[in-house]
Amino acid sequence: MGVALTRAAQWTTASSGTGKLEITPVNESLLKEILQFVEQFSSRHPQEARLVFKEPLQWTTSLEASDFKTEYDISGPAVKSQETDRDGHPMLQLTPPSISVHSFSQLSKIVQLATDKKLKEVRACLEANRDPIAKMLGPSFATVEGEDSSVLRLLEEVKEGDQAKETEIKVKLIILLQQLDTQLLSNSLKQISQEVRLSPAAVRNDVELLKSFCSEGEKRVLTSVQYTSDYEFTNGCRTPPWRQVHGEICYLVIKPCDTQPLHITCSTAGVFLNGGIWQEGEENAYDRTSDVYRDLVTLLKSKSPHFAENINKQDFAVQEEPPTQKVQHVELVEAEEQGQPQRSYEHQEKNVHEKARQQLVQNKPGGKKKLEPSLKWKNLGLASPYEPSPYYGKNSSNKQRETTMLIVISCWVLLLSKTPGGVGGADDFSESSSESEEDEEQPERRTESNTDLPSEYWQIQKLVKYLKGGNQTATVIALCSMRDFNLAQETCQLAIRDVGGLEVLINLLDTEEIKCKIGSLKILKEISRNSQIRRAIADLGGLQTMVKILDSPDKDLKYLAAETIANVAKFRRARRTVRQHGGIKRLVKLLDCVPDSAALTEEQEKDVEVARCGALALWSCSKSTRNKEAIRKAGGIPLLARLLKSPHENMLIPVVGTLQECASERSYRIAIQTEGMIEDLVKNLNCDNHELQMHCASAIFKCAEDKRTRDLVRQCEGLQPLVTLLSQADNKQLLAATTGAIWKCSISMENVAKFQDYKALETLVGLLTDQPEEVLVNVVGALGEGAQKPANRATIRKCGGIQPLVNLLTGTNQALLVNVTKAVGACATELENMTIIDRLDGVRLLWSLLKNPNPDVQASAAWAICPCIENAKDSGEMVRSFVGGLELIVNLLKSTNKEVLASVCAAIAKIAKDEENLAVITDHGVVPMLAKLTNTTDDKLRRHLAEAIARCCMWGSNRVLFGEAGAVAPLVRYLKSKDTSVHQATAQALFQLSKDPNNCITMHDNGVVKLLLGMMGSTDEVLQEAAAGCVANIRRLALANEKARYG
Predict the structure, then answer these.
(1) Could you tell me where the beta strands, DSSP code E, fall in 174-311?
(2) Which residues contact 456 (CB under 8 A, 6 or more apart)?
(3) DSSP 396-423
(4) Is the separation of the CB atoms in 420 and 354 below 8 Å?
(5) What is the pLDDT of residue 430?
(6) Mean pLDDT for the stretch of residues 890-904
(7) What is the pTM for the complete model shown?
(8) In principle, which of 515, 804, 847, 924 could form an S-S bond with 890, CB 3.0–4.6 Å?
(9) Residue 824: which of 767, 856, 862 has the closest Cα?
(10) DSSP 3-state assignment of 459?
């Protein structure tokens, strides 16, 4: 058995023990014979069958505890045989999915129990135990090259040892196994030798022979024999590299004496007429136009009566090559026996082919490359091998033909592995893709040499070819075999794509065969995780077909189609395709199930799975704004709300994922409030599944923009679970979602009080270092909101939070800068905190952020500067120490962003308290800039603008300049605002302006007196005093005028 597995069996790797048996006729024949041997072994050789192996045979089995009957002890999923060895160890032990067997008797029982999975078990056993004899009898009986003296050693043991009986049984066993080896090798050689293959050397010999028939005179049989190309590659072929992948060796033009010239293709599978190739012919000229013949002489006999009549009269007979010279596998075995490794030979040959291919491309006339179809799109049909061929014989059975076809397909894959440049010529790589929409296209995976590709790549391509040419049963078998590969591996995924397997798999979805559809979808579901595969599926119309399958009554089909859609719809065009073909409505329908109870029937479990996969697909699709709206219109929100109460975590993850994705839309946030989903989200924060917790926290993060949601989270006692989740510092995604939810919930001061009780700020301060930016943005945002309360500002300082906050001012993340400036500004309202900020040069860093091009950062920095100036010990000197700082802040009054203007006006109001600074900003033209802004209708800007004007009036002739700039009349209109804080600031500004007579006249003309008289009775003393002062100034001016006029 060991020799047969080493020499005759065809493995996916050359020598390692990790390879798999290829799906070839030779291997299938070997497996069946080994299966028959094992099945009958126990009854034919009972003594040998009971022999305990030195080491158990172990492999991954598909058998389960339910498959075992009597004679076995079953404990849950585990199984032990009642039969034991001398030490009491069971001869068979099953711990799913691993099985361990110690004797042939148990092997015989396993294959009987496996029923229709017999071959699969034998295959798995042999793949896991490449040299089973070494395990059965010990390492000294391992399969080796050269002379095998293991039987002689056993005979010596019989003579010398005490355990003669056991050794005798071993001798019988090894003889039986060697007989099996001999039988397997003989049958394999017989099967391989039936394969007819031509080589470049054989074709060259035939051509030279035929050229000798072209002599003048009576012996002349042919007029001429010519190659279409004079260039010969190192491998002996004369065809272009992109035709060599099809096994074509050369093209000939032979002129018989009695017929038209014959255009002939010589390939490894035989010779046939083509469409008329001459040098570089058209693509359709390569097509076969005749039957396939064994060799050139056979073809010419069939096409030229003159040749057939005279060829046997020649002085030299046409000799056929010995069959062994045409059998590729036998040659390889012989080479290996002579110490010539097969793979190194193939590697040398590929390198030679590659050089020849490049030389051919460079030598083409005109220097232009001829674009050839890529292998993945064309020339992969299996029509040719199925057409009748003269060498099949009229009496050949269909089964024999099918076997031959499988061998031909296998040989094509072997030929592909020897073709230079991988699976296509150099021109294939000139194709480009224009699909780049919003996703960055991953670079195409291409290899310069097949040595970079594992053998699984070629094995999968072989299976795809079986998939193309087989009936329903063969198709299902090929699909099952394909799933045995690691389809999560990129090599396996691209192998399916490169050989045109995606087209086949997608076409299978249009058939009426449920099993084929299910098998195809299972494969597509796995490989569609690859971005290149996803795009290829979308290009081939696979999404449209899968959307239609969502209407199928078969639940397995529905959930597989939905899960595959979930994988494919990762980019914009795919999501749009799903929506445009009615996929959103169909996916929403899948959500309608009854998942509330934990114990479900089998049918209900399928319903839950369908709904889960539907939610997965909607989750992928919901990344598009239009799809969010389509889900809402299709009635998805109440169904998602119902599924949110499910006890099944695997259901909850896609449901919450969809909700948190859609929560960016206000309509969804309102629906989440009204449908009572906040309570369910909070409840799931307490589960043990970190992914589910993360999605729930993320949903709360987005929904907590609204005050009603923030209140609901507090009322549902969701704040404490959020604080608890801060301990999961290693899970960065969960931490980002949790800190985001805490940040948004902290906008409400009632929630800040709760967080204060739960010691949340202390934990948040500890997260200010060694965290990713997405976490820092949320942590700093939460601290900024919490710092609105005096007690929390002290807490941040005591926990050492000021320094890391100031350090973050040097970052580049815009969102983080907005939040950190707000947090620093809030902390600066405490004198002790301001001392630390000033010592760390925090104010200078804030001032430098006014140069940031982002208006949000500019505004936030300007707001933060205000408390810093107010609470600094010598604020005037500090501000003047910033070179160019005052000019910078005055120039920001040219901004078009109202938040920037309001914050800068507030900062100018603080700066103008210092007389020297007021003089400097006046020189920089602050007065006309402020006056220009007075026509605004934004109350926030009005308030701070009025404060700035009031402060700036206290220097020189600024009052007069404001009046001349037309700032007075607009200010009077501010008094009509509904915001009382605007009234106070405006009254102060008007009081300062009223000290100029011309301004008093303007105010009086605009009706300011009536407005101010009403405010003089206000409970706000500052407003009351400013209003009264302004009216008094106006009245004094009026009295002075009367006195001057009337004396």
Answers:
(1) 222-227, 248-256, 262-267, 270-273
(2) 12, 20, 485, 486, 489, 491, 492, 495
(3) --HHHHHHHHHHHHHHHHHHHHTSTTTT
(4) yes
(5) 29
(6) 94
(7) 0.58
(8) 924
(9) 862
(10) helix
75 DSSP β-pair partners: 78
Sign of the C-alpha dihedral computed for residues 334, 338, 340 and 343 taken in this order: positive
CB 752 within 8 A of CB 746: yes
Torsion of CA 762, 767, 768, 773, to 10 degrees: -150
Comparing CA positions, the residue from 737, 748, 675 lying closest to residue 708 is: 748
**Any residues with CB less than 8 A from the CB of 259 and at least 6 apart, and which?**
303, 304
Cα–Cα distance, 26 to 17 (Å, whole number): 20
Give every CB contact of residue 17 below 8 A, 6+ residues apart in sequence.
130
Please give the helix or strand (H or E) that residue 99 lies within, else none: strand 98-101
Q: What residue type is 839 in one-letter code? A: R
Largest CA distance in the chain: 154
What are 858's two structure tokens? 């500019």
Phi, psi of 222 (to 5 degrees): -125, 150
DSSP one-letter code for 12: S
Q: Map tokens 């899948």 to a residue.
A: 590
Digit-coded pLDDT (tens) for 579-627: 999 999 999 999 987 656 666 778 888 888 999 999 999 999 999 999 9
Tokens for 86, please give them: 């001398």
Could you give the strand order of the β-sheet that contains 262-267, starting from the edge strand earlier in sequence?
222-227, 248-256, 262-267, 270-273
Instruction: Give residue 195's pLDDT.
Output: 56
Average pLDDT, the chain: 80
Q: Render pLDDT for 649-662 as a digit per residue (tens, 0 to 9).
A: 888 999 999 999 99
Six token digits for residue 331: 């040659």
Residue 33: strand, helix, or coil = helix
pLDDT recorded at residue 449: 44
Q: How far apart are CA 485 and CA 868, in angstroms?
A: 65
Radius of gyration of the chain (CA): 43
pLDDT at 456: 81
Q: Which helix (H) or strand (E) holds 639?
A: helix 636-643
Nearest to 998 by CA among 948, 944, 946, 957: 957
pLDDT (tens digit, 9 = 90+) per residue, 317-327?
A: 444 433 333 33
More confident residue, 391 or 1044: 1044
Q: According to the per-residue pLDDT averaged within each range, which of 13-27, 259-273, 891-905 is highest?
A: 891-905
